[in-house]
Write a structure and sequence with these properties.
Number of strands: 6
CATH architecture of the domain at 5-44: Single Sheet
Shape: globular
CATH class of the domain at 5-44: Mainly Beta
Strand order of the largest sheet: 1-2-3
Helix content: 40-55%
Order of helices and strands: EEEHEEEHHHHHHHHHHHHHHHHH
Strand content: 5-15%
CATH topology of the domain at 5-44: Rubrerythrin, domain 2
Largest sheet: 3 strands, antiparallel
Number of helices: 18
Distance between the termini: 57 Å
Structural class: mainly alpha
Radius of gyration: 24 Å
Amino acid sequence: MTDDVFRLISPSGTESQLPVRTGTTGPDVIDIARLYKEQGVFTYDPGFVATGSCESDITFIDGEKGILMYRGYPVEQLAANSSFIEVAYLLLRGELPTVDELEEFDNTIRMHTMLNEGMLNFFKGFRHDAHPMAMLSSVVGSMSAYYHAEMDASNPEHRDIFANRILAKLPTIAAAAYKLNIGQPFIYPRNDLNYAENLLHMLFAVPAESYEVDEVAAEALDLLFILHADHEQNCSTSTVRMAASSGANPYSAIAAGVSALWGPAHGGANEAVLEMLEEIGDTSQIPKYVAKAKDKNDPFRLMGFGHRVYKNFDPRATIIREMCYKVLQKLDRKDTPLFDLAQELEQVALKDDYFIEKNLYPNVDFYSGIIYRALGIPTSMFTVMFALGRSVGWASHWREMISDPAMKIARPRQLYTGAAARDYLPIEQR
């Protein structure tokens, strides 16, 4: 809190002094907590795009400069030097771990990847063609029925257990959903594999033969999880916070976040990218679809280009672009028509004046979808992969919010535009 104030004077002359709060970095915020009491008005901010909904020390974004930091560390440095498990520790605990702390944390996650067998039986109740996100949301929500003994949010130890459990078990749930879709038996996790390796094992191993994890594939997944780990107060994270503010159990809050992530405007964007590429079909059609994207009267939009927050460039896209080409080269998928199409579209967008002027650059969703496809992960699983990375961000924000003594139940207000007060008419008089 600073000594600076914004003075707001109403049409009737009533004055309010609104305190200014200054964070570590980023824009100041105006504290409007007393505004309704003093002035009798609310602020109006559709989508809360200009509203600081909470105080947080987890992630910082500067969309104008293309900056993304976890706990003060630039994501570029973490992507180059760290692992997803180390980043997960950073987000959850606030500091990078020592060698011993990382070993202990990594071991904890490895040892808690198995699911209660009763939870696996849930999958038998789903249709074979159920969307993996529907199964993920349902099964995560059911975790409160199996692990209810450690759900006291006021207990720091219980908060740690919950966060570790979500991080450890979501890959197992995700892999089970995939196996159900393709009619293969569930594959149990292996404690000797790291986070990304274990996921690949559970996705692609079969009982009939041995499976060897591809190092480049595991490296690519680990990088994607780092880049997706958190992104400040996005739609799904805000959903987790809002659900949890009621005191709902944390598994329900995470399930709510999963559901929010499923939307094509959020986590489903990388899935939409591949669907767009399939619609375009061939490199010869790119000029036609680029023209459609430029036409204001045409509903077609190029998915995977631009970002609501980053106005110049997405710092994650630069990192993942290099990994994208590395994966395509290692797996010898360079000549696949879909990847040729994606690369050609990328080059067109980077050179076209229309896209340059509007800062419509390829974003993280554009490249991540291509990587997932190259790894053999079906389009329906793309958003699930996003959820696995983002789960640690959700858990971190839940821990932060639930331990804040100033926490209040989320209760936004509205601008009411419905009918004014009127009297009820009996049905025979209408």
